[in-house]
Write a structure and sequence with these properties.
The chain is mostly helical and 168 residues long. Helices cover 71% and strands 0% of the residues.
Length: 168
C-alpha cells in the first residue's frame, strides 16, 4: 500500500476536523501542503488564546471585510453564528459599521485601527485600548488573527475560490 501524500494527509486532517474539506483548504493543500499546514496549525494555536470564539470571529470578520474577501466573510458569518454572534452584529461588521455588543464593538475598532495603522500602534493607542479592556496580549491575538486571515484572504483573491454550499 502506498503511503499517503502530504496533500492527502492534510486533506484527511481537514475532513476529520471540519467534517468536510472547504474549497480554500483544497486549494491550499493541492498547491502547497506546507501553506495549508501553516494555516491549520495557526488556527489550532489561536484557538487557545484569551479571546473567545465569538470575539475571534468578530475580529476575523473585520479583517476579511477589510480585505474584501467574499469567501472568508461568507465562511466566518456561518462560523460566527455557530460561535454565538448575533446576525445583526455580523451584518454590521460586514457593512463596515460596529456591532451592537459593546465588547465586540471595541474589538472590531481595535482590529480596524491595527489594520489601518499597519500595526504601528503608539503608546496612546495602547493606553486607550487598555482602558477599553483590551490588554496587550489581546492586541497581539488580534495581530495573529490578522496574519492568519491575510493568508486565507489572499489565497482566495488569487484563486477566486468558490464559496462552499455550507457557507451560503
Amino acid at each position: 500500500m502506498e503511503a499517503p501524500t502530504r496533500e492527502q494527509e492534510v486533506l484527511d486532517t481537514v475532513e476529520q476536523t471540519y467534517g468536510f474539506v472547504p474549497n480554500l483548504l483544497k486549494e491550499m493543500a493541492g498547491t502547497s501542503p506546507a501553506v495549508a499546514q501553516v494555516y491549520l496549525d495557526a488556527n489550532a494555536a489561536i484557538a487557545e488564546a484569551s479571546l473567545t470564539g465569538a470575539e475571534q470571529q468578530a475580529v476575523i470578520l473585520a479583517v476579511s471585510a477589510h480585505n474584501d474577501c467574499h469567501y472568508c466573510t461568507a465562511a466566518h458569518a456561518t462560523v460566527g453564528k455557530m460561535e454565538g454572534l448575533a446576525e445583526d452584529d455580523i451584518q454590521a461588521i460586514l457593512d463596515g459599521d460596529l456591532p451592537g455588543d459593546e465588547r465586540l464593538s471595541r474589538l472590531v475598532q481595535a482590529t480596524r485601527r491595527t489594520l489601518n495603522k499597519r500595526g504601528w500602534l503608539e503608546a496612546d493607542d495602547l493606553a486607550e485600548l487598555e482602558a477599553q479592556g483590551i490588554d496587550r496580549a489581546q492586541v497581539y491575538e488580534i495581530v495573529a488573527l490578522i496574519g492568519i486571515k491575510t493568508i486565507s484572504n489572499y489565497v482566495n483573491h488569487i484563486n477566486k475560490t468558490e464559496i462552499d454550499p455550507q457557507f451560503q
